[in-house]
Design goal:
Elements: H1 8-98
Length: 99
């Protein structure tokens, strides 16, 4: 075996340490990116939950408004029927007085 030159073991060790540091930095970067993705996913999940709750609330409000509209339509029909009947009664009374 050849004896290593004077600065060679140190430079090999330094190169290995640089590669190790670079790998650790890359790993830390990947971990940070993954954590950021998880934070974003959690924020999106929260927004989805809020939107679902809003949708349910709005659906309930729409159901209530539709029920009220149906009641108003029914009341409108009844008022129209009664007005028609009252008008016919008034016409009949007026016609009887003209005779």
């Amino acid at each position: 075996m050849n004896a290593p030159e004077a600065g060679e073991p140190t430079s090999v060790l330094e190169a290995a340490l640089r590669r190790f540091d670079s790998a650790v930095d890359a790993l830390e970067g990947a971990i940070e990116r993954r954590l950021e993705v998880e934070r974003q996913e959690a924020a999106l999940a929260q927004q989805l939950h809020v939107l679902g709750a809003d949708r349910s609330r709005l659906a309930d409000a729409l159901d209530g408004a539709q029920a009220r509209a149906d009641r108003l339509d029914t009341a409108n029909d009844e008022v129209a029927r009664r007005l028609g009947s009252a008008m016919e009664t008034i016409r009949a009374v007026l016609a009887a007085q003209e005779r």
